[in-house]
Task: inverse folding
């Protein structure tokens, strides 16, 4: 059964999926799914069969599904119809037992929908921080400190979701003397703060 799960061959559990399509932005496409147990997948390509996978806390998963319930599991219209600038076409989708329903909008005045969209935006920001730091650590050692500054800013502004996923990378930088001393010091400090839960995202 473990192998089947890993291969994605078992039927999908109850989950909430957020998709944003915004040509010209970076990234232009984002898809994030989270199930009731907190298992989360992040994609920047609709055809990506190797998404980033991590787990959010049970409390965060409960918040997501609680907001979905408040929104009638996306059975109702969310688009406000107001004449506003294009901000990306966003879709919430709820799936359970092989069935699903969804709502798509550019702008909504529903506060619960805004809160849920912001949570998914924070997931996207976190994964982009993670990707930039991974690239810098591999290809641009002098750029690692700048990537860490961006992670630190996200942490201090409480924009990181499931920041524990960053710990292996932060620890690797902190312990590798080929990186600048300031980068190693910053990575170690961030890792310590995340482990201590001194700041960071709360849903």
Result:
């Amino acid at each position: 059964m473990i192998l089947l799960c890993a291969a994605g061959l078992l039927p999908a559990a109850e989950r909430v999926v957020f998709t944003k399509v915004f040509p010209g932005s970076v990234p232009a496409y984002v898809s994030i799914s989270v199930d009731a147990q907190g298992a989360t997948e992040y994609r920047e390509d609709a055809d990506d069969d190797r998404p980033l996978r991590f787990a959010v806390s049970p409390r965060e998963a409960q918040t997501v599904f609680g907001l979905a319930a408040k929104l009638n599991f996306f059975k109702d219209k969310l688009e406000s119809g107001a004449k506003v600038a294009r901000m990306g076409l966003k879709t919430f989708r709820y799936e359970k037992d092989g069935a699903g329903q969804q709502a798509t909008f550019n702008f909504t005045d529903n506060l619960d929908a805004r809160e849920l969209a912001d949570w998914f935006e924070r997931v996207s920001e976190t994964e982009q921080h993670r990707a930039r730091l991974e690239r810098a650590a591999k290809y641009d050692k002098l750029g690692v400190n700048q990537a860490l500054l961006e992670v630190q800013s996200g942490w201090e502004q409480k924009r990181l979701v499931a920041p524990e996923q960053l710990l292996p990378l932060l620890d690797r930088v902190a312990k590798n003397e080929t990186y600048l001393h300031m980068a190693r010091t910053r990575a170690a400090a961030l890792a310590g703060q995340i482990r201590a839960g001194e700041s960071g995202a709360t849903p």
Remarks:
- Helices lie at 2-7, 58-70, 111-139, 144-156, 167-175, 181-196.
